[in-house]
TrEMBL record:
This is Reverse transcriptase domain-containing protein. PANTHER family: ENDONUCLEASE_EXONUCLEASE_PHOSPHATASE DOMAIN-CONTAINING PROTEIN-RELATED, REVERSE TRANSCRIPTASE. Pfam families: RVT_1. It comes from Candolleomyces aberdarensis. Residues 57-310 form the Reverse transcriptase domain.
C-alpha cells in the first residue's frame, strides 16, 4: 500500500488550465450554462475565487452537491443508417452541469499528475492519463512484430473487450484502489459521495423523461471517468506481471479493451502460452468485478511462413 499523500487546495492556475481546455462549442447541461459564459464570469478574480473555494470545499467536506449529480441523456440517431429500428443505430450523449464539469476537470488533472508523478499506473496502459494513445499502441505492435520476425519469432495476439466497462466498475473496489494507491482519505470520502445518488433524464426528440437513478459504475462523458477507469485496471496489470512470469507475454490495456501478445518460434507454442495468459486475465478481471466479452475476443497470428499451420 502506498503511503497517504497530502491533497493541497486547488490554485487559480489549476482552474485556468482546466477552463482553457474546454471547448466553447460544447452543449450545455441541465444548468443551461455554456463554457463561453463561464469563461467570461471566471475572468473576474472574485468569481474565480468563489469557484476555487467551492472545489476545495467539495473535497474537504467529502460531498458532491446533488445539483452536479443531475444530467440529461440525449438519444440521437447515427447518420446515414438504412434503418432506425434497432437501438444500436442511436447514440446516447450525456449532458452534465457545466460548473460541475469544470470542477471534475480540475480533479481529473490533479489525478493525472499524481498518477504520473507517483508511478501509479502501468506503462502499458494506453490513453486516459497521457500514457499514450491507440495510435502509439499500433506503432508499438508493428515494431514488436517486425522485431520478432528479425529474430525468427512468430507473433500471436489475443484482443479482448471488457463488457459494459464504465457502468460495471464496482464502487467499493474503486474506493479500495484509491486508498491502496495513497490518495488522501478526504479524497476517498469525496468519492463515496460522488459515486452515489446520481440522476439522469432521457431526452428523445422533444420529449424529456423525469429524473431516473443512474448510480451504476462511473458513467461516461465525465472528465473523471477515464482516470478512474485507468486506476481500476492498474491492479490487473500489476498482478498479471507477477502471475505471468515465465510465459514471455505482454499485456496492453486501452481502457476498456486490451491485447495479450506472445512471441516464440512456433505458432502452436504461442497458442499454449496465450491460453494460460488469457486464463490469468479472465481471473483478474473477474476478481475486479468486471467481465470479458468472450464473443468479441479475437486471435491474430503474424507469421512470414509461406505454408499454413494447424
Amino acid at each position: 500500500m502506498e503511503p497517504e499523500r497530502a491533497w493541497p487546495e486547488f490554485s487559480l492556475l489549476e482552474l485556468r488550465q482546466a477552463l482553457e481546455a474546454c471547448s466553447s462549442r460544447s452543449a450545455s447541461g441541465p444548468d443551461h450554462i455554456l463554457w463561453r459564459h463561464l469563461k467570461q464570469i471566471l475572468a473576474l478574480p472574485q468569481c474565480a475565487d468563489i469557484i476555487i473555494a467551492l472545489a476545495n470545499g467539495c473535497i474537504e467536506s467529502g460531498h458532491w452537491p446533488k445539483q452536479f449529480k443531475e444530467s440529461t441523456l440525449v438519444i440521437i440517431p447515427k447518420p446515414n443508417k438504412p434503418s432506425y429500428s434497432t437501438p444500436k443505430v442511436f447514440r446516447p450523449i450525456v449532458l452534465l452541469n457545466t460548473l460541475g464539469k469544470l470542477i471534475k476537470k480540475m480533479i481529473s488533472n490533479r489525478f493525472q499528475h499524481n498518477m504520473i508523478k507517483y508511478d501509479l499506473v502501468d506503462a502499458n496502459q494506453m490513453s486516459g492519463v497521457q500514457q499514450g494513445s491507440t495510435k502509439d499502441a499500433g506503432l508499438f505492435l508493428a515494431h514488436l512484430v517486425r522485431a520478432g520476425w528479425a529474430k525468427g519469432l512468430q507473433t500471436s495476439i489475443v484482443a479482448f473487450d471488457v463488457a459494459q466497462f464504465f457502468p460495471s466498475i464496482n464502487h467499493q473496489f474503486l474506493l479500495a484502489v484509491l486508498k491502496k494507491q495513497g490518495f488522501h482519505s478526504k479524497v476517498t470520502k469525496f468519492f463515496r459521495s460522488y459515486l452515489v445518488d446520481s440522476f439522469t433524464s432521457y431526452a428523445w426528440n422533444r420529449d424529456t423523461s423525469n429524473l431516473r437513478h443512474a448510480d451504476v459504475g462511473v458513467g461516461q462523458g465525465s472528465a473523471l471517468s477515464p482516470v478512474l477507469s485507468v486506476l481500476v485496471i492498474a491492479p490487473v496489470m500489476k498482478f498479471f506481471r507477477i502471475r505471468s512470469v515465465g510465459l514471455a507475454c505482454t499485456l496492453i490495456s486501452y481502457v476498456d479493451n486490451g491485447d495479450i501478445i506472445v512471441q516464440s518460434p512456433e505458432i502452436a507454442t504461442n497458442c499454449v502460452m496465450l491460453r494460460h495468459a488469457y486464463g490469468i486475465v479472465f481471473d483478474l478481471f473477474t476478481r475486479s468485478s468486471l467481465a470479458l466479452e468472450h464473443d468479441k475476443t479475437e486471435l491474430f497470428h503474424f507469421t512470414r511462413a509461406r505454408t499454413g499451420f494447424d
